[in-house]
Amino acid sequence: MRIRYYRIFEVRVLHEYYLLNADNLSFFNLTKQKRDEILEERLLKNQYRLQEDIIIEPTEECQRLLKNYQLRFIATATGFVVVSGGKPGESANRVKPNIEIDPNVKLDFILDVKNPYFKNYTSLPLQGQLPQNYYFTNAANAVADASAAFQSLSQPVATLQTDKSYEPGDLVQFGSGLREATIDAGGQTVWEPVKSSGFCNESDRILLPKVFTYPLATAPPTLRVELSLQTRNGVELKKITGKSEKPITAVRADFAAVDPGKPIPDGLYNLNITTNNGTAQHLVYLSDAYRRKAVGLIQLNLGQPAPQAQILDNGLMQQPHPVFEIRFRSRSTFWRYLPLFFGKKLKPETQLESFFRAAGNGLVTVRSHRLTFLPTVEDSDGKIGELPQPTPAALRRLSDDPRWYSDVSVVQVKDKIKIE
Asked: What string of H, E and C letters represents the secondary structure of 104-116?
């Protein structure tokens, strides 16, 4: 007997590194037709290679659920789809799955990294206070694309906090628009407008294991600490305390169980930290599926009722199927051109003097540029043309300098950079 399969949902992982064009317009600002054209062209020319950098796979529990409901996970060049055998229903755009699916089912997938330089070219923090990963989900408050054709799995970006320090690449909600923290040539933070939305951001970075180490401030020293895990309604589940006459540098947070034999289930919780230096509050998602070196967890709630995030409609599959996106920004860095041979010095050609500033024997771009797989560098008037581009491996920071640099060693570049 032949079984006809239908797509229940699709997840696409889209990265600016492989999608930016020479005009530097964000892929996510384009119409659905133009986006489809660009993505298809990049795939045909083997210019969208994110599948070589990441891997997505169902968790053990997800594999069990897929098997129980006779669903299939299929990896694609841009992410994955989940399909089910089914029969057309009474409505032309609804399909009944062969096996009725519990609307409370949540499918979890691990987004892991194969390319060790993935974070180098991705606008994500390289370190943080907690060992947090990203939690992507079709929650009701996820960001809808303006076209309503695609649904982002990222949470809304948090508003600007004047008492918080920000890294280059951080996104904030600033008034009615989205802005990104950049560093100018003088080392000052500048908030540049961002036209697109739905990007992976710090509001998504809430995934934690159930046992982890929480580092504490050393100046002033921490002498007393209290960690309180609470439900979203504020009911305390477990409290961990510590007190010492000597500075406490870290505390072990064990939230695997409330008591022996009473495990804490995966889910969203409030984590309140109180020390002699003050208090901090975190929204966290604790999960047994956490992997330290992974990017994060993708969770799809098949019974999500919100229209823009819905997968099953009263137990029926929607046709066309819903498509969800995880959107990554490309890291913006200052490009530093260095002479390949010792004792030589680089100088820009006359028409590029305003594009570079001198830095020792090399040159540094006056403003930062996004790392891209294809050449994109142009000035605001589009007169620069292509320059040798840095690889993701060349990312570095200089001492006492908040800017990210990408190094390129050159002999000279015809009509652009000369050597003396």
From this structure: CCEEEEEEEECCC
Q: Are 210 and 285 in contact (CB under 8 A)?
A: no
Average pLDDT score over residue span 82-95 = 88
Containing H/E element for 62? helix 60-68
- What number is the average pLDDT over the span 383-402? 82
Asked if residue 311 belongs to a domain, the reply is yes
- Percentage of the chain modeled with pLDDT above 70: 94
Buried b (16+ CB within 10 A) or exposed e, 276-299: eeeeeeeebbbbebbbeebbbbbb
Question: C-alpha dihedral over 306, 310, 314, 316, to 10 degrees?
Answer: 170
| Residues in the chain, total | 420
Please give the helix or strand (H or E) that residue 37 lies within, else none.
Answer: helix 32-44
Cβ 315 vs Cβ 103: under 8 Å: yes
Domain-terminating residue out of 140, 168, 196:
196
Q: How many domains are contained in the chain?
A: 4
> pTM here?
0.93
